[in-house]
Amino acid sequence: MREATEAPGRRGERAADEVPGERATEAPERRDGKTMAEASQRREEENVAEVPGRREQHKAATRRALQEAASRMFAERGYAETTVRDIAAAAGVTERTFFRYFPSKEDLVLGEILDLIPAFQGLVRARPAGEPPRTAVMNAALELAADRRGRLGVLFSGPPQRFAGQPARPSRPVLGQFEDALADTLAERLSADGADPDPHLALRASVLARAFAGALRAALIAYSALPDADRNLTTGADLVRAAFGMLREA
Questions:
Q1: Long-range contacts (CB closer than 8 Å, 24 or more residues apart) made by 18-24
Q2: 180: exposed, middle or buried (C-beta count within 10 Å: 0-12, 13-18, 19+)?
Q3: Longest dimension (CA), the chain
Q4: Predicted confidence band at 15 (pLDDT cuts at 50, 70, 90)?
Q5: What pLDDT score does 45 carry?
Q6: C-alpha–C-alpha distance, residues 192 and 211, integer Å
């Protein structure tokens, strides 16, 4: 017999994901068939388009606002209990605008993960040339974690456990992209040291990248096993340093 009810917290989410921008809502006052919120959003976007370059800045700011609102609400309510409508409202935009930036809630999380990869590469490249690869990657990871308020962990696990629903995409391809990008960056550093060409440069960079990614992932696993009260940037940084120190001992 077909169930007549749905689990609390899921109905609104499914409806938003299945029919972007077309959910039956009790809209505020309407004007010419459009809600006042939608009309205001459209006017704002039209004004932004009048100034060259301003539109791209506006789009980047809206994307950031959606990601920050989502991260905050996932932490407060949980991934499964936060709907697209909730995220859009918290960011001050409509659901229709949300779907212009992200096809689904999951894509928002994956987009944030992939945004971290070039940021991490840039930090590794910016480390002093005299730093060994292990030290450069460790310090870059600590810097990124501090700057992104600990969100480095999504590189290795997809949505953190407290966000978890039933993600449809495996996190392994994301980890592979991170490892490949780090290997490319390490190869750049290793080939710039003025030494004789290394016939195994690509292999060395690949081995180091995957070892460093493993150390970061192990530190994340240890961090996620801690009680909530013990989770902070200082504790996380200590675990990262300890994990990279163990690579030196191997």
A1: 20/95, 20/96, 20/98, 20/99, 20/103, 21/94, 21/95, 21/96, 21/99, 23/85, 23/95
A2: middle
A3: 73
A4: very low
A5: 58
A6: 21
**pLDDT above 70 as % of the chain:** 67
What distance, in Å, lies between the first and last C-alpha atoms of the chain? 59
Torsion on CA atoms 22, 28, 31, 34, rounded to nearest 10? -10
Inter-residue contact 104 to 17 (CB < 8 Å): yes
Residue-wise pLDDT tens digits, 39-70: 666 655 555 445 558 888 888 899 989 988 88
Residue 89: exposed, middle, or buried by beta-carbon count in 10 A (0-12, 13-18, 19+)? middle
Token readout for 67 is 């990601």
Reading the block at residue 50, the tokens are 């009048």
